[in-house]
Amino acid sequence: MSIKTGKKVFAGILFITFFWLILKFCLPHGQLKYAAPTLLPHTEWRMKCSGFWIGLHPYPDRVILNSAQVSALNLRTETEPGLINNILNIGPFYQGGKLRENLRRELGGFLKGRFYNAKGWKTGNQFYRRIEENTRIENIPSTINVRYGFILGYVDQRVLPARDIITAVPFDFDFDELQNSSLDAGTPLAILHETIDKEWFYAVTPASSGWVQKKFVAVCSYSQMADYLKKDFCVVTAAKTGIFWDSVLTQYYEYARMGAKFAINSQGVDSIGIIVPFYDEKRGFYERTAYLKKEDVSIGFLPYTPRTVIEQAFKMLNAPYGWGGVNGEQDCSSFLQEIFATVGILLPRNSADQAKAGIKTAEFKEHSDNEKKLLFLARECAGGVNLLKLKGHIVLYLGQFNGRFYVIHETSGYRERVWWHDRVRVLRRVVVSDLSLGQGSAKGALLGF
Hints:
alpha+beta
């Protein structure tokens, strides 16, 4: 082999090595990702319509739970496993020791782990020391006097009081480990603690707890909150809707996502007048009138039927994925939260807790026989009624077609086996798929086979 040819081969080897290093160290998990096809394996275009699944349903308009039964379900979820919160039942005092324990556990989880900042560097102890100094956990009294408030506009709820992005994998910005949830305007909360710099509140909401920026909170009294929550209300049924200051819907204020709930004070031809909790330094807490598009809301909750749930789910078909609700979007659990909020059912924040709410119909071990799982689905489950808790994921069951079992869910992606390795297919949206999605990959299919 000539010297010239040898140089070419050597250069090729260097290029391949360099490309491999890029894949290994610059991409999350060292994997090249591919866009998923518009039509996923084993799906048909007609499956992207709610009507397809309603047409297959044995009882689409049967009321699964009436309003009294929904209230009883929420009460049980609140009192038995303690997975959701009635804000009016928190206080007037709260155990300081319990809060100190929770905050130390949350901070300790980051101190023990390996996480990275926005530059891709390992997050140093200096960052956590600043958090610790600002929260002053040791200053929390044994008995906390609970304060109350409402969210003024869409805001992130954080695990720690910081806007910094912290990731488990360098540069994997779509999965910020500090992002806990996101909250819409009008969300009630119980305030338990405040940072030294007066920038953050630690607060309990109906579905979760975490840090929110103080400037997004309208602080109020217990009686002001109770009065607001007793008023007649409407619930947002569109995937998203604008909040306006005028009845002709031209002076935009904020937007609200599906399931957001507001007190109402008037109804027009094209708009609904709502009461928005507000706050400023001079007036303190007060209420303002705003307006929503009439066709985007329901006066009171929608009836809990399979048709309702399926139709609400398909309103968010192809909606972008947002870990912890970041950027105004939703992940697998908040997708279900928003859907079921329209019928009055309150679900907790994460998928593991959602699996504990409601009535458990069955539980299978990770390596259970898949034929038994599918047989159970065929006999016992119905579309728009059953949630399926999978490994690290939760989905809404739609039904069976041609021997396959289908779900609708918000997901980041799936894997497929190609030769000797897995190819990662990126979805990052709400999709309809069957439970064999990912079959043959190292991670396995949705259902586990």
